[in-house]
Specification:
Length: about 350
């Protein structure tokens, strides 16, 4: 496998341009202090920070700016990147998804599986417009969403004090849906912190932030694998590198509360030719692959799944599995018996399916 260049950052961030409490310099400084290399902002219903030329390098952090769209019932949230202007407000989700793609944008379904009903003041915002295929990716794991799904009147204080401990795993429903979608076409899996640093009033003007940006930047991280080193002088070229890799699916997600996942790799090699395939790649039907995984901790426990079903488990070493069966192959890693890493899949396509997009 040729050398890959890994960059680590956070996605799905809100600022004072919508309902976040942080200004760009404060948020970027928090990321820089933690050694993050990129941030993807997505304020609600506005690209104003992009118009103000805030996209680019700041304090050594590459900043990309998209925005979050929703319908009039505040459901069907879509993160739209690589756009220069917003699509029309108030149109149905199927239509704004179509328009994002028509404009060349990269579309990510946000927190698709919210179902909470314990606190009426915090309703769920699920994706329900599954009749459309006009999206490139879905958030398989969202830190704030998972935190709020657990929230009730009795555990609010504990969850406030333990925001990162409350991160357990993506929902089974989301993962199985993601695998089914990938059997048909490439749908990239992403992770989002959904950072707002909301101010929660306790008494009069006294309150707390839920949570500071730096707390969430130590939860779900996005590891993007580049073919070439990240361009450090030309921010436009660097952003093209970043989004090209994201569109291709060369990304894995880690729960950084459990440690540093840098260096994890999942790949496959064609038995007859030795050709290497990376997550996001779609392989012609009938190709026999040898799968490989590189773990970062001696006690990490890797599971290879095919179509959501485990087909191999091991704590360390190469995957002793060959397969030519059509399906969606991806790796989940546990550390300390908790969900740690989720790779994007390598797909052996169905017969007569053709090379995927």
């Amino acid at each position: 496998m040729s050398e890959l260049h890994e960059i680590v950052g956070a996605m799905h961030i809100h600022s004072v341009f919508s309902d976040g409490t942080g200004h760009y310099p404060e948020i970027i400084r928090a990321a820089a202090d933690l050694g993050l290399e990129f941030l993807l902002f997505s304020d609600h219903r506005t690209l104003e920070p992009k118009r103000q030329k805030l996209e680019g390098y700041h304090d050594g952090v590459l900043v990309g700016i998209g925005y979050e769209i929703n319908d009039q019932s505040n459901r069907n949230h879509l993160l739209a990147f690589e756009l220069d202007r917003e699509v029309e407000w108030g149109i149905p989700p199927r239509e704004y998804a179509r328009r994002v793609l028509a404009a060349g944008g990269w579309a990510v379904i946000a927190h698709p599986d919210e179902r909470r009903n314990k606190l009426p003041e915090f309703p769920p915002y699920p994706w329900t417009a599954w009749e459309t295929e006009d999206f490139h990716a879905i958030e398989i794991w969202n830190q704030l969403s998972e935190w709020m799904e657990k929230l009730n009147r009795w555990n609010k204080f504990w969850l406030y004090l333990n925001p990162r401990r409350s991160v357990v795993a993506p929902t089974k429903w989301t993962l199985e849906l993601w695998d089914r979608l990938n059997l048909k076409r490439r749908v990239v899996g992403t992770g989002g912190v959904d950072a707002h640093a909301h101010f929660y009033p306790i008494w009069r003007n006294v309150g707390v932030r839920i949570f500071p940006y730096k707390v969430q930047f130590r939860s779900l991280l996005s590891h993007v694998l580049l073919r070439e080193p990240l361009e450090r002088q030309d921010a436009g070229a660097a952003l093209r590198q970043l989004f090209d890799a994201l569109r291709t699916g060369r990304i894995f997600i880690s729960n950084s509360f459990l440690g540093d996942a840098r260096g994890f790799r999942f790949w496959a090699e064609e038995i007859n030719t030795g050709k290497a395939y990376l997550p996001g790649d779609r392989v012609p039907a009938g190709t026999e692959l040898q799968f490989h995984v590189k773990l970062t901790g001696k006690d990490d426990h890797a599971v290879l799944l095919k179509d959501s079903h485990p087909v191999w488990k091991r704590r360390e070493g190469a995957i002793p599995l060959r397969s030519s069966q059509s399906g969606v192959y991806r790796v989940e890693v546990k550390r300390e018996r908790r969900a740690f890493i989720y790779s994007n899949p390598i797909v052996i396509e169905l017969p007569d399916q053709g090379q995927g997009a």
